[in-house]
Write a structure and sequence with these properties.
7-stranded mixed sheet; alpha+beta; Aminopeptidase
Length: about 160
C-alpha cells in the first residue's frame, strides 16, 4: 500500500485527541514497565503540545496517528510515534519515519529513539529502517539512525589526495 502522508501541527486544544491516541496505542506498553502514571503521561503530552513538538500524521485527509519529534540541533529525537490500530500494518509508521529521517538528512543530523522491550514489533520496524542499538536498558533500547555520509567533493575521487 502506498501512503500519502502529511503532518499537521497539534496544539493544546488537541489534548483529548492526543490522549485517545495514547490510550489506543501506547498505554498498554508503558504502564506495566514504568512508574509513569496516567497523570504523568497526561502532563507530558500536554507539555509537548504546548511546546509545539507534536504533529498529527494524516493519511488521505484522516488523522491516523501522531509523532512527537524534538530537535536539539545535533539530532532529531522521536519521542513518540503512535499509529492508530486501524491504520497499522499499512506502512504509515515506516513512511513517517522516512519523512523524519529525510528532514534530519538535510541538515546532517542523526535520529534517535527509545523503544520499550515489550514492543518487539516496533523494534523490528526500526531495525528494518536502519536504526542500530546504542544502549540496552532495563526496560528499553536506545537506537540511532546515523546521518547519511557526506557527499564526496565534486571532481575528487574517493581516497585520492
Amino acid at each position: 500500500m502506498t501512503c500519502s502522508l502529511t503532518f499537521e501541527p497539534l496544539t493544546e486544544a488537541d489534548i483529548d485527541w492526543a490522549w485517545d491516541v495514547y490510550e489506543a496505542t501506547t498505554r498498554e506498553h508503558v504502564e506495566p514497565v514504568t512508574d509513569w502514571t496516567p497523570e504523568h503521561q497526561w502532563a507530558e503530552r500536554l507539555a509537548g503540545l504546548r511546546g509545539g513538538s507534536f504533529t498529527a500524521i494524516v493519511d488521505s485527509g484522516r488523522r491516523v496517528g501522531l509523532a512527537e519529534v524534538t530537535d536539539d540541533g545535533d539530532e532529531l529525537t522521536i519521542r513518540h510515534l503512535e499509529v492508530l490500530p486501524a491504520a497499522q500494518g499499512r506502512g504509515i509508521g515506516s513512511a513517517a519515519i522516512e519523512v523524519i529521517a529525510a528532514r534530519a538528512a538535510i541538515t546532517g543530523q542523526s535520529v534517535s529513539l527509545r523503544v520499550l522491550h515489550v514492543n518487539p514489533r516496533a523494534r523490528a520496524l526500526y531495525e528494518r529502517l536502519g536504526f542500530v542499538v546504542e544502549d540496552e536498558r532495563a526496560t528499553s533500547t536506545q537506537m540511532r539512525l546515523a546521518p547519511p555520509l557526506a557527499e564526496q567533493e565534486p571532481g575528487r575521487r574517493p581516497g585520492s589526495t
